[in-house]
Amino acid sequence: MMVVCVPRSVCCTARRCCSSSLATRTLSKRPLLPQKRHTDEGDAVSFVDFKRVTCKAGNGGNGMVSFFRGFRVPYGGPDGGDGGHGAHVILQADESVKDLSRLNSVITAKNGEYGKPKSCHGKSAKHLIVKVPLGTVVKQINTNTDK
User: Fold this and answer.
1) Phi and psi of 19, rounded to 5°?
2) CB burial class (10 A; 0-12, 13-18, 19+) of residue 136?
3) Above pLDDT 90, what percent of the chain?
4) Is 60 exceeded by the pLDDT of residue 16?
5) CB-CB neighbours of 97 under 10 Å
6) Per CATH, which fold does 50-138 belong to?
7) Is the four-CA dihedral 96, 102, 104, 105 of positive or negative sign?
8) Where are the domains of the chain?
9) How is residue 73 annotated by DSSP?
10) Interval 23-71: pLDDT, tens
């Protein structure tokens, strides 16, 4: 198919102009090459096989300092509850996880709840389970233990 561009005075007839003609559409300045498919932002993540992560377990909840106060009991004994246990950070190997790219650099578990009066103990926090790929090597580099 050969397209020839004709002068505007010859082409224009009865409200039709060559700007809408086939010649203008086929001779545009854009190339007719196939467009490259763009990836989504989530697909363009690179493979991560080494990551330094800081894990912090949750603190236990504080106990309640409380004394029993009843009718005609002037010196009631202690009745405060203990605080709940803090959560652990557990690393679990999983086949569906392929790399460490979605792992946060600081992982913090939740704290236990406070104790309450009338011997009510605080609720323990749920453990935080972090899924890692199979074959992940975990090394303990630095510990901040109070002596």
Assistant:
1) -65, -25
2) middle
3) 29
4) no
5) 17
6) Spo0b-associated Gtp-binding Protein; Chain: A, (2.70.210)
7) positive
8) 50-138
9) B
10) 555 566 666 677 777 666 555 557 888 989 999 999 999 888 888 888 8
Query: Whose CA is closest to 125, among 138, 114, 111, 105?
Result: 111
Structure tokens at 62: 């504080």
- Whether the predicted model's global pTM rises above the 0.70 cut: no
Quick: pLDDT tens for 96-146: 988 888 889 999 999 999 888 888 888 999 999 999 999 999 888 777 766
Please give the Cα distance from 121 to 99 (Å, whole number): 40
Q: Which two tokens stand for residue 22?
A: 């086939």
Q: Which two tokens stand for residue 42?
A: 């989530």
pLDDT at 56: 92
108 has which bridge partners? 56
Helix residue ranges per DSSP H, 18-90: 22-26
